[in-house]
Design the sequence.
């Protein structure tokens, strides 16, 4: 079977990791299967809720993550159009089929009547559902009320007895009592289709083989299965993966941190890291692997590995994984990604000369192993570019005040200034000589005092590596500055 899967978001806001995880599963299944197709369809029939720019953000999110679609907006395909707002004639044709079969009916109930019905049901502790009053109207009464201009919706006529069984790929057969199913609205009073109708019609006409969607849609699945049966269509394979929760086991929301896909881009996450992380939110490759390339994910992916127990979105785990991917970047690519953050922080000029470019490259090489998100680079390397950095007070107290820091700096400066070449080994030897000059048993005080003098900090890259990157002139001038500043009472 040729796999055809679809990602069909509504442009009501920025896409979040929950529905993009669904898109990723679709994409992986299509790419794993020879001849598989990944379709993007925009379900934009709810114009009142459509957010400006949301459609573009959906497509930008997919592009950033590298989830290319085979059919859809901007690509085309044999089953277009792929915007539901451009498929209204198709829905009119299909609803006429259901009306002719008696599988749908026109409902003239006013919002006021429906509100009163709901209130009465809630008061009597009954299920809140439509009482199917208009289902009993004669054809003559329907024509009369329609001719009089009464507004109406078109509802699906669901069976009131027996059970509907939905076969879910992950969960097996799921049974629903038909007496508890509400007749859903298929066409609204303005003539626009609802999701329950348009999505199912499009899935059939676009020959979708697998419908992968969040488990929250399980409760709607009997209505959708009944719609397929009413048309006499073969149902797709229904797949309802687990929901994604926050670390507190509650539904993932902004209180847990970023959830919008493009927010993660703004926060300095790499697309490959987010793809890897999301793939493991509710799917397992069958072994202990965590860091997997895109090709490895495609090769390993199958629906059999998709889980039904809730997935936990752990931002710290994502930060760790992002750090792994940052360390795997080619040095030139790392510089390219970090440079905008340095420019924004005014650490480097927007137009840099060759000397500055080389300095930036050598500095960033020291921090590539240490950061987990790209914006962290700004704070990590700021002391390399600013000479007015503050001094860590606890570090000054621990190392400078207790070890006669001025004497240590004087001895270190003397030995460093005498060097003919400026290499890691040369500087390490100079520190050893300064340690001997000061009659110290260990070189730790010299190293820590120098680090505070050169960076203002007590931790960072290896001392001799950062001194090599800074260069002789910068190191010596910073020792002089620290001696002056820290000598003040």
Sequence:
């Amino acid at each position: 079977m040729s796999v055809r899967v679809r990602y069909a978001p509504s442009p009501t806001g920025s896409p979040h990791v929950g529905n993009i995880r669904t898109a990723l599963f679709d994409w992986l299944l299509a790419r794993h299967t020879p001849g598989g197709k990944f379709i993007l369809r925009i379900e934009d029939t709810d114009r009142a809720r459509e957010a400006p720019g949301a459609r573009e953000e959906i497509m930008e999110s997919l592009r950033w993550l590298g989830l290319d679609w085979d059919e859809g907006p901007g690509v085309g395909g044999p089953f277009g159009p792929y915007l539901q707002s451009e498929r209204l004639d198709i829905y009119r044709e299909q609803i006429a089929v259901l009306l002719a079969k008696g599988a749908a009916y026109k409902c003239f109930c006013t919002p006021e009547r429906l509100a009163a019905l709901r209130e009465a049901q809630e008061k009597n502790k009954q299920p809140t559902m439509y009482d199917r009053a208009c289902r009993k109207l004669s054809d003559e009464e329907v024509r009369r009320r329609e001719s009089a201009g009464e507004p109406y919706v078109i509802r699906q006529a669901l069976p009131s007895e027996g059970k509907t069984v939905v076969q879910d790929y992950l969960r097996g057969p799921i049974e629903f009592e038909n007496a508890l199913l509400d007749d859903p609205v298929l066409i609204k009073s303005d003539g626009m289709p609802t999701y329950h109708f348009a999505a199912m019609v499009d899935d059939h006409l676009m020959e979708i083989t697998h419908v992968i969607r969040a488990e929250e849609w399980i409760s709607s699945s009997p209505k959708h299965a009944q719609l397929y049966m009413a048309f006499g269509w073969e149902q797709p394979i229904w797949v309802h993966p687990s929901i994604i929760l926050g670390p507190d086991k509650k539904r993932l929301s902004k209180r847990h941190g970023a959830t919008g896909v493009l927010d993660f881009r703004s926060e300095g996450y790499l697309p490959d890291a987010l793809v890897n992380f999301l793939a493991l939110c509710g799917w397992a490759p069958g072994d202990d692997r965590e860091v997997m390339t895109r090709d490895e994910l495609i090769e390993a992916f199958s629906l059999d590995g998709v889980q039904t127990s809730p997935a936990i979105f752990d931002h710290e785990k994502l930060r760790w994984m992002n750090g792994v991917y940052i360390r795997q970047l080619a040095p030139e690519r790392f510089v390219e990604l970090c440079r905008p953050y340095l420019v924004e922080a005014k650490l480097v000029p927007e137009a840099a000369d060759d000397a500055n470019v080389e300095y930036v490259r050598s500095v960033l090489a020291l921090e590539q192993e240490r950061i987990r998100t790209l914006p962290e680079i700004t704070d990590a390397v700021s002391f390399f570019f600013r000479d007015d950095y503050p001094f860590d007070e606890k570090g000054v107290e621990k190392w400078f005040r207790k070890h006669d820091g001025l004497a240590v700096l004087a001895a270190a400066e003397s030995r460093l200034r005498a060097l003919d070449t400026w290499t890691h080994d040369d500087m390490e030897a100079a520190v050893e000589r300064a340690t001997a000059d000061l009659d110290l048993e260990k070189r730790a005080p010299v190293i820590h005092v120098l680090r505070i003098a050169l960076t203002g900090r007590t931790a960072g890259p290896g001392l001799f590596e950062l001194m090599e990157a800074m260069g002789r002139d910068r190191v010596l001038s910073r020792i002089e500055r620290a001696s002056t500043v820290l000598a003040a009472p």
